[in-house]
Specification:
There is one protein chain. The protein is an alpha/beta fold. α3 crosses α10.
């Protein structure tokens, strides 16, 4: 009934570019955002200076410590090395990513504000909550950066070694097991809710203000399990601080080949895939978006970035802005159907 679920939560950050320019910033009709002039020579700031001439802000709408935060800093550093302008990662967590995403939506359309987008922030949360932005109208797509599985992890004190054993334990103790998420309406929340629907178990959702705090709560045994970002959970699994029961994709993750899929582990029909990408506030010049897209594609293709993502179980993506926008539209349609079919609701 649920079908294949294409979803959210990790990955990449950023970009910049050096472009020649011409003077002439204009005011966009119907908005307070300043427009950026475009000429045949390329995008320009309002003062006629080449772009970029100052640090670029990359908003990560979650607290430090999650997968998207780690990759944002990794890619931001590569951008600094290539272009000589800083990419400042600005963590603005809260409300399932809505706070940081709203800040980005209200920012100037000048190419100096970017935002990490995930299925949680621009697909799931807007479908379940009234958020102060429209993911398709208030943003322009730049690039789809990566996809990554969720991973079901438990604290070592939980007496189970497989997903099948977890289901049996949960059914024997209805409402006794707690699962942490990175916030109401995030993909880690919906991943847990879908697990409940597919398996018929009763577990209690405990939302946190991001993947980092949720993982820390699990490490401290304040909750028993989490459907978390594989990228940020991998080191804790390898060190024995957490126990992995399964990844949420149809195939095993390259970075953790010994961890079974949940389908292999006794939960057939369950698949959830996270994704990350980059957006800019609506109205940024096409030439700037194209240049950003080109630079991010180059960064994703760097051997060290590919190695880091693949080793962590992620799949590097890339592609055009149009392809990324179409992907977001398809994901919205897919999750809207899942939410209707399962009558999923979140605590108000």
């Amino acid at each position: 009934m649920l079908g294949t679920l294409r979803v959210s939560g990790l990955v990449i950050a950023a970009l910049l570019c050096a472009l020649t320019a011409a003077p002439g910033a204009a005011q966009q009709p119907g908005t307070s955002k300043p427009a950026v002039a475009e000429t045949a020579q390329g995008p320009s700031t309002g003062s006629g200076q080449a772009y970029p001439t100052k640090p670029i802000r990359l908003i990560n709408p979650f607290p430090p410590g999650g997968g998207s935060d780690a990759v944002a800093h990794l890619v931001g550093q590569r951008l600094f090395e290539r272009w000589g302008q800083s990419v400042v990662v600005d963590n603005r967590g809260g409300a399932g990513g809505a706070i940081g995403t709203e800040i980005a939506a209200r920012s100037a359309s000048d190419g100096y504000t970017l935002v990490m987008a995930t299925a949680s922030t621009v697909v799931i949360n807007p479908l379940l909550n009234k958020v102060p932005f429209d993911p398709l109208k208030d943003f322009d797509a730049v690039i789809h950066t990566a996809t990554v599985p969720l991973i079901l992890v438990v604290h070592p004190s939980v007496p189970v070694r497989s997903a099948k054993e977890l289901v049996a334990l949960a059914k024997s103790q209805p409402g006794k097991l707690n699962f942490a998420s990175s916030g109401e309406g995030t993909i880690s929340h919906l991943g847990g809710e879908l697990f409940k629907v597919v398996t018929g178990v009763d577990m209690v959702h405990v939302p946190y203000r991001g993947g980092g705090p949720a993982r820390n709560a699990l490490l401290g045994a304040h909750v028993q399990l989490n459907f978390g970002n594989l990228l940020s959970a991998a080191s804790h699994v390898k060190s024995g601080q957490l126990r992995a029961l399964g990844v949420t994709t149809r195939k095993r993750a390259a970075g953790m080949p010994d961890v079974p899929t949940l389908a292999e582990a006794g939960v057939p029909g369950y698949e959830v895939i996270q994704w990350n990408g980059i957006l800019v506030p609506d109205g940024a010049p096409k030439a700037i978006i194209a240049r950003l897209n080109g630079e991010i594609n180059k960064i994703i293709a760097l051997p060290e970035i590919q190695k880091y993502l693949v080793a962590s179980g992620a799949e590097p993506e890339g592609g055009t802005p149009a392809e990324f926008r179409a992907f977001i539209q398809a994901d919205i349609a897919k999750w809207a159907k899942v939410i209707r079919d399962t009558n999923l609701k979140i605590r108000q």
